């Protein structure tokens, strides 16, 4: 089965073609990052307008890259939520138009399930059951996953997501956008032990990142002047280390508590080079196998949506043209 995936939940317009839920034939991503950079964050109204401009060329490019016309497609998978409603509606409308015109089955997909499913595009995909850490700009959640439709929450953030912690720090420090990418780069030259930052809720599998952000803000205020370019590597490395510490510690503890032998780390923050390195070394010494998709499949993409869509379509799921976008959509309900 060949599925066309469409994703437009935030600021990336993406289309992909996936065969049998495991083979990537095309993966096109049009990023709006330069448009939103001047505002220091995603402006929803601008995002919707940019999606409208990009959606058709991106879909056509994906079909061309896959070496097939639209007639080679057996079904369409589209992100239904969670995300920005105006943005989601653009992808959803394109999917409905194609489904109607070509009489193809279409299915709405949960974006978070998509992030986890990106692991099935790896050369050696994970077997169920596993622990999944979904760590993105809007979510930081640990799940026990027993099948494509069987997710149980073991822990989640009580306030900010880890991606938000990266983005807000970069905004406070005025070092650029998107924060995660900038901090990842700067921190490579720094010492993660140079500054001390808090690690919250150590005993629990839940997370809290708002205290970390506040502690950076307090440090900045006390100082009165911005950090110099020479200080930024140590500062960002220490801040990043505080985030990595809790993510790695709690995810591996969740695996040990549930006797899981495999861990999947996914979502935009899983593109972070230090987080990847720490998971690979620390999971290995705990006897746990870790699966982290390549960075391009960690940040938003449509290939992961096509993977979930393939499983839903194979199970006979099909949505109608009345399918609506949803801004919030817990995994268990999708
Ligand atoms: O999954 P994603 O692309 O979109 C959402 O579904 O939210 O994740 C975006 C988040 C942003 O907060 C961004 O700063 C973060 O992922 N991110 C990173 C890196 N690349 C993206 N965080 C840390 N290090 C990175 N290399
Ligand atoms: Zn995402």
Q: Could you estimate the helical fraction of the residues in percent?
A: 40-55%
Biggest β-sheet, characterized? 5 strands, mixed
Q: Quick check: average pLDDT?
A: 97
Query: Mind telling me the CATH class of the largest domain?
Result: Alpha Beta
* Rg of Cα set: 20 Å
The name of the CATH topology of the largest domain is: Nucleotidyltransferase, domain 5
CATH architecture tag of the largest domain: 2-Layer Sandwich
* Total helical segments: 11
Describe this structure in words.
The chain has eleven helices and ten strands. The protein is α/β, with parallel strands linked by helices. The strands form two sheets. It has a five-stranded mixed sheet, sandwiched between helices. The radius of gyration is 20 Å and the shape is globular. It starts with a strand and ends in a 20-residue tail after the last helix. Zinc ion is lined by residues 111, 115, 136, 267-268, 300.
